[in-house]
């Protein structure tokens, strides 16, 4: 590897116009559950069908910290005879939904980094799902922005953004790219089972983008040296979606519970928190600094109690809200975009020399982190 210093020079956040509060979501779910229980009363009585329990807004906020979420398309989600967004198929000549979200976030990141598409030579689109296998969404984005070079898609669930940033860092370090555009168009709502009380509240839609480039080309007001990156994966079935291209060959209906996001939430909580805390502590120390030297923690945004527990394990005390900013109250879990939204909204006040850590944790299991320092 060369001695090239690599920086994060700009980020962009695209937020959909539509929101759904816990109250709206619960009202629709409860109407659906009540209708289901009425229609299946005899079978429920015989024990052949399980009764659908009711949801509450209080439980959702207490168990997760989520109050509201943004959705790409609201139409259809609260319709109890549908309970999934109504997203029309676009003709092939039109830009795809995810590429459109990605381009909107990318333009903001380019502006923040003071860059034009001509300065970029690689595009990575990395998220929990892409809406098709090929051509890659990244290549469509590259074409839309007029970028020369190459692009590819990556899927690593909640760690898609941090893992892609690490690949970007490696590419710039190795000299195979000068400046990389990493984009996370998280269109999660179509994969959310709005008929399932345990998970109907968890996710929201958003897109984030980050520019990674050589320090000597950086023209940004706020930029960050990448001091180190660390990734780990460890197989677990506790967070899973079986949706995939074999559905027709399997004679399987796409709208089956196992094809949507599903998880063992308690197990995930118990197993991932210690893994993440250990991963972060080891990573920070490997960069020659201590946990106390970190001014800001931009942590994955799945559950407020997870973030408090991880910060407590690291710091030996509760974090100040400004130390580990929470955005999941208004965005919900946005899969890989969560830590990048937190970074986007809460970094400009840092002083030169301040250290920060971006970290994701989620399905796979997968954990990814970057230790950075404000220039
Ligand atoms: N309303 C009222 N009561 C409820 C509800 C509800 N909506 N849901 C559950 N309950 C009840 C349960 O039935 C249970 O009742 P009882 O005690 O009588 O059995 C009680 O409340 C407690 O239930 P839980 O044990 O499930 O509740 P928890 O306190 O564990 O909270 C959480 C549930 C919030 C899910 C929590 O476990 C959690 O957040 N765990 C961490 C999970 C996590 O972070 N997952 C992230 C994975 S996401 C990821 O990696 C990306 C995937 C790719 C993106 C996918 C896009 C769609």
UniProtKB/TrEMBL annotation:
Q: Does the keyword Acyltransferase apply?
A: yes
User: Ranges for the Beta-ketoacyl-[acyl-carrier-protein] synthase III C-terminal domain?
Assistant: 286-373
Is Acyltransferase included in the keywords of this UniProt record? Answer: yes
Which of UniProt's keywords are assigned here?
A: Acyltransferase, Transferase
Q: Which domain of life is it from?
A: Bacteria
User: Example GO molecular function term?
Assistant: 3-oxoacyl-[acyl-carrier-protein] synthase activity
| GO terms, biological process | fatty acid biosynthetic process; secondary metabolite biosynthetic process
Which parts of the sequence belong to the Beta-ketoacyl-[acyl-carrier-protein] synthase III N-terminal domain? Answer: 152-220
InterPro entries linked: ACP_syn_III_C (IPR013747), ACP_syn_III_N (IPR013751), Thiolase-like (IPR016039)
Q: Would you tell me the protein name for this molecule?
A: Beta-ketoacyl-ACP synthase III
The organism's lineage is:
Bacteria, Pseudomonadati, Pseudomonadota, Gammaproteobacteria, Cellvibrionales
């Amino acid at each position: 590897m060369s001695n090239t210093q690599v920086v994060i020079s700009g980020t962009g956040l695209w937020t959909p116009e539509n929101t759904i509060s816990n109250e709206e979501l619960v009202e629709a779910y409860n109407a659906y559950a009540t209708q289901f229980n009425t229609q299946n009363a005899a079978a429920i009585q015989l024990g052949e069908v399980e009764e659908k329990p009711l949801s509450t807004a209080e439980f959702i906020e207490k168990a997760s910290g989520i109050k509201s979420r943004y959705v790409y398309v609201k139409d259809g989600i609260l319709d109890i005879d549908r309970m999934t967004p109504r997203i029309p198929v676009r003709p092939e000549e039109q830009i795809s939904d995810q590429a459109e979200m990605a381009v909107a976030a990318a333009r903001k990141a380019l502006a923040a980094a003071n860059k034009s598409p001509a300065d970029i030579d690689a595009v990575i689109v990395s998220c929990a799902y892409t809406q098709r296998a090929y051509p890659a969404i990244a290549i469509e984005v590259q074409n839309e922005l007029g970028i020369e070079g190459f692009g590819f898609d990556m899927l690593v669930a909640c760690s898609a953004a941090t893992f892609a940033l690490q690949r970007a860092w490696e590419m710039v370090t190795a000299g195979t790219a000068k400046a990389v555009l990493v984009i996370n168009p998280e269109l999660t709502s179509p994969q959310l089972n709005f008929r399932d009380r345990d998970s109907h509240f968890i996710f929201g839609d958003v897109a984030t983008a980050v520019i990674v480039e050589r320090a000597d080309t950086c023209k940004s007001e706020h930029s960050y040296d990448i001091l180190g990156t660390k990734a780990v994966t460890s197989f677990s079935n506790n967070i899973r979606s079986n949706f995939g291209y074999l559905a027709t060959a399997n004679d399987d209906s796409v709208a089956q519970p196992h094809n949507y996001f599903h998880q063992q939430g308690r197990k995930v909580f118990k197993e991932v928190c210690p893994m993440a805390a250990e991963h972060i502590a080891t990573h920070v120390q490997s960069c020659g600094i201590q946990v106390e030297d970190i001014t800001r923690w931009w942590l994955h945004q799945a559950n407020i109690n997870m973030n408090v527990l991880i910060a407590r394990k690291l710091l030996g005390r509760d974090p100040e809200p400004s130390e580990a900013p929470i955005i999941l109250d208004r965005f919900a879990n946005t899969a890989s975009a969560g830590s990048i939204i937190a970074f986007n909204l809460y970094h400009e006040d840092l002083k030169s020399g301040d250290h920060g850590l971006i970290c994701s944790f989620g399905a796979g299991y997968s954990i990814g982190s970057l230790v950075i320092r404000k220039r």
